[in-house]
Amino acid sequence: MIVVTGATGTVGSKVVVGLRERGEAVRALVRAGSPGPAEWDDAVERVAADFSDPASLDAALAGADAVYLLVAVHPEMAAHERNVIDAAVRTGRRPRIVLHAAAGVEQRPEGVRFVGAHVSGLDHLRASGLPWTVVAPNGFHQNVLGMAAGVRAGTLAAPGGEGAVSYVDARDVAAAAVEVLATEGHEGAVYTLTGPEALSHDALAERLAAVAGRPVAYTALAPEAALAGMLDAGWDQWRAEGMVELYGLYAAGYAAAVSPDVEKLTGRPARSFAEFAAEHAAAFAG
Ligand SMILES: NC(=O)c1ccc[n+]([C@@H]2O[C@H](COP(=O)([O-])OP(=O)(O)OC[C@H]3O[C@@H](n4cnc5c(N)ncnc54)[C@H](OP(=O)(O)O)[C@@H]3O)[C@@H](O)[C@H]2O)c1
Questions:
Q1: Domain at 155-163+196-256+271-285, CATH class
Q2: What is the tens place of the pLDDT at every residue in 150-202?
Q3: Among 164, 168, 236, 249, which residue is least crowded by beta carbons within 10 Å?
Q4: Pairing between strand 164-165 and 199-200?
Q5: Distance from the alpha carbon of residue 6 to the mean position of ligand 1, in angstroms
Q6: Å from CA of 71 to ligand 1 middle
Q7: Domain layout of the chain by residue ranges
Q8: Is the CB–ligand 1 distance for residue 140 below 6 Å?
Q9: How is domain 2-137 classified at the CATH fold level?
């Protein structure tokens, strides 16, 4: 039986569906009172648990053969990863852990809190003695949906400088994760999941303009201006600072590598940003 954490989110919800399509027995970790997405079939076992509550994690992981360990972006996300790993150790069954981390986790960049949390989780996992695999995605295409209002007004504004990013579609991340969970032979592997090409934010704006049917220009924000904008928009300080750190990594060119791992795992080419933008043309055109 495969336990999926973060199961109601962007990637996890699709991992659950993909595993059920392969006939796997799936237990999905949900918050108390959540029925889970409508796209799940009745055979998905729902279990209420919280990353900050070890007893609930013990119940959620009992009997697990494998765990998809995906935690949300949160100030305690490193502790949340450790809590799930510790609960997996306590099962006494040595379940295989597939850690959903972030591209760059192996390079251990300094001062990028989201990636740093996964570095700490991976260190804890290695020390646990459990069998492990890492899926390490780059930024998701889907993040751009959160900027759709700006795009409709003609601007893609971000503190990404001139750096190119090989953004990946969250559906491809889920499909790759399903392959890793449902098949053997992945122990100790770190799969870097990217899209098929690295695009500057100017190039992203061009592709958005093409589907919106009107001009869209990239505005490279200074980090301070980006932070102020996110705080004005109601983001909490920790998360907003983390986004600025991440964009700093993008601006410095560290997210530009293109990996063959999506295609290697899924047997299909990774979706391009242009395909994603076309599917969501209505959101970007208004
Ligand atoms: N976005 C990117 O570009 C990107 C790129 C690379 C890596 N990542 C990594 O991907 C992960 C986020 O994936 P995602 O976008 O699929 O996540 P998401 O859509 O934000 O979903 C987060 C999931 O975690 C659950 N959750 C939150 N707090 C919880 C708690 N305290 N206890 C139990 N469950 C809890 C949420 O449940 P509810 O639905 O009930 O809130 C939801 O199922 C992060 O680890 C991030 O570092 C993201």
A1: alpha beta
A2: 999 999 999 999 999 999 999 999 999 999 999 999 999 999 999 999 999 99
A3: 236
A4: antiparallel
A5: 5
A6: 5
A7: 2-137, 155-163+196-256+271-285
A8: yes
A9: Rossmann fold (3.40.50)
